[in-house]
Design a protein that fits this description.
Length: about 425
């Protein structure tokens, strides 16, 4: 038996830890990978030219499926649950809020650093070699699309200690305020910026002003709402609801989603409402948390098995690497397919659909091999207690980390922004290390 297998079998489960949330976190990332596999439709036209399309987005059922399959709000709910549990442990160890935030920054920034360095080198080389800029932009924008999560999740986790204090004092009032503010941002974006001012959406490439930029404040309000729901989940509020109350919560949530989408401005697809986030993400957070509570018992039964625990711990130990590197790996594997003298299945054809599960497994296997080296970046060093308050340093580290990533999400990945993200991530890690004894 391998050492890794022995470690997994002998690993002790912390007392009070809800393993179903580890399962949910892993399942969410794997679903994201599979959806991106379905998005990546690459083939050749009849004249031999390259065809690149988002195949699954062209399907008639995709919009309806996105109302269920967009599970990113649940990620923030689970993050809120974990933050509340982690904060209680930190308080018991007499750790400061700065240490709490620095640990979470390291968990995101360390795995992200090699990715941004890789992007900087590849995009810089593409410039020097004179590769078709349109092709580079098409690939780079797609590969950089999941990076919004790094900035949004870091901001939510950095504010978690303050938001937990507000939660303890004011409870559901914080949810109401966050949701009302998210609606206000949406109204400003759709009615005033897009309507009165007539500012168009951002172009596919290049910098400038666009309607989407006015929705960026909802990184705070929509995702903090989802995280706040996670605090309620940790407190047991959802567990105290009966099954029919949870079902009514889900049904009422979908009615609210339909009402919001009917107002105009919002896209029918929930994927389109993900960036910049809109109030629909807050509604989905409640729906998905209620559904998770209903499914808690069968998920718990699954996680009592050694096979499930071993699989979840194995994948969970490389989760950020899988999330960050799966799209670059998809593009590398597609590039290899294009170079091989083999016929490619036409995107959307029956053969293409039948080969997607196999391609999904190949992508995961390739990323796992990559993680054998990159996995070291997921190991977070222990932070000591600072000799003096370091709030300013912690805030600066978070700001320099998230700012280039928000710019990448708004304008698309390119060489200058990749380099800025690499420098910002390195600086954030240096700042946090410098603030320890």
């Amino acid at each position: 038996m391998s050492r890794a297998a022995i470690d997994l079998r002998s690993r002790a489960v912390p007392v009070g830890r809800d393993l179903t949330l580890d399962l949910v976190r892993v399942a969410c990332v794997l679903l994201v990978v599979f959806v991106h596999v379905l998005f990546t439709g690459v083939g050749r036209e009849s004249d031999g030219s390259l065809l690149i399309e988002k195949t699954v987005e062209t399907q008639s059922w995709f919009t309806a499926a996105s109302w269920i399959a967009n599970i990113m709000p649940l990620f923030f709910v689970v993050g809120g649950y974990a933050a509340r549990a982690g904060w209680r442990s930190a308080v018991a160890r007499r750790e400061s809020a700065d240490t709490f935030v620095r640990v979470r920054l390291a968990r995101l920034a360390r795995p992200a650093l090699p990715l941004f360095v890789f992007f900087t080198i590849v995009l810089g080389a593409a410039r020097v070699l004179g590769v078709d800029p349109a092709l580079v932009d098409t690939i780079a924008i797609g590969v950089g699309s999941p990076l919004w999560f790094l900035a949004a999740y870091m901001i939510a986790q950095a504010l978690a200690p303050a938001m937990m204090r507000l939660h303890e004092r004011h409870g559901a009032w914080i949810l109401l305020i966050l949701f009302a503010t998210a609606l206000a941002v949406d109204a400003f974006r759709f009615l005033f910026v897009g309507g009165v001012l007539g500012i168009a959406p951002l172009p596919p490439t290049g910098y400038g002003l666009g309607q989407e930029l006015s929705g960026i404040p909802n990184i705070l309000f929509a995702w903090l709402f989802a995280q706040q729901v996670g605090f309620f989940l940790y407190d047991g509020w959802f567990a105290l609801r009966t099954w029919w109350q949870l079902v009514l919560m889900i049904a009422g949530g979908y009615v609210a989603l339909w009402a919001l989408v009917s107002l105009g401005g919002y896209t029918q697809s929930m994927l389109g409402n993900q960036w910049p986030p809109t109030a629909t993400m807050a509604v989905l957070a409640v729906i998905q948390t209620a559904a998770l509570t209903i499914l808690h018992r069968p998920l718990t039964a699954i996680m009592r098995t050694r096979a499930a625990q071993g699989t979840v711990f194995l994948i969970g130990s490389r989760l950020m690497t899988i999330y960050l590197w799966h799209l670059p790996m998809i593009m590398v594997l597609v590039g290899i397919e294009l170079l091989l003298p083999l016929p490619l299945p036409s995107p959307g054809s029956p053969l293409w659909w039948w080969t997607r599960p196999l391609f999904f497994v190949v992508v995961l296997a390739a990323v796992w091999l990559l993680s054998l080296w990159l996995g070291r970046f997921e190991r977070v060093p222990r932070f000591g207690v600072p000799r003096r308050p370091s709030t300013a340093v912690t805030v600066a580290a978070v700001v320099v980390f998230v700012t280039p990533i928000i710019a990448i999400t708004a304008y698309g990945l390119d060489f200058p922004l990749a380099a800025a993200a690499a420098v910002g991530t390195g600086a954030a890690l240096w700042f946090t290390k410098a603030s320890t004894p």
